[in-house]
Amino acid sequence: MSPATPDPAGKPRTAGRRPGGPDTRGEILAAARESFAGKGFAGTSLRAVAREAGVDAALVHHYFGGKDELFIEALALPIDPRQVAAQILAGPPDELGRRIVTVFLGVWESPDGQQRMKALLRSVVSSEDVARLMREGITKMIIHPVAETLELPDAELRVSLVATHLIGMALSRYLIELEPIASADVQTLINRMAPTIQHYLTAP
User: Where are the annotated segments for Disordered (predicted)?
Assistant: First the structure.
């Protein structure tokens, strides 16, 4: 049995999980990044993260709410993927492709978003751990919800093809800076890409 130790008021308290402190949130994030990298999204639990950080699981819920929120903050994503899915799905099906391109470019074109997305994309292409984590997290929070609305037997394949198109465009425009795509205005890109993205999603 752990011995009781006095608190500052002289009363005994039982040793155990420590309460929250100034660095608790950061320590939870550090433990989460390690767990996500080693075990992936599906293999990470809030209880295990709390144990690794040396805190009560209730503190993880207090700071982050749930595993999705912890994932978003651990990877320093510039936008909540669930909000992305909600924006994409809020409108008529025949404009789904245009909404996807518009939302995607909106994230990349913001100064903070572009900086963080560049760092994330570089990590994805250079680290299998990060790539696996992104696959699992984004599949759960974006690909599955969008695919479910299509009601087609190959819906996830279609949405995955959309993802390959968007990632290729991001690499070309923001990392490789391939011209003329790198200097094209956003509206032109939306107009050119939207019909192709729509075709992926709804063509027979």
Answer: 1-25
Helix (H) or strand (E) holding 122: helix 111-126
3-state secondary structure 1-47: CCCEEECCCCCEEECCCECCCCCHHHHHHHHHHHHHHHHCCCCCCHH
Whether 6 maps to a domain, the answer reads: no
Q: What is the pLDDT of residues 123-181, one digit of tens each?
A: 777 778 778 877 888 888 888 999 999 989 999 999 999 999 999 999 999 999 999 99
Alpha-carbon distance of 75 to 167, in angstroms, equals 17
Q: How confident is the model at residue 40 (pLDDT cuts 50, 70, 90)?
A: confident
Domain match, 89 and 45 both = no
- In sequence order, what are the beta bridge partners of 110? none
pLDDT band at 9 (very low <50, low <70, confident <90, very high): very low
At 136, is the secondary structure helix, strand, or coil?
helix
Domain match, 29 and 114 both: no
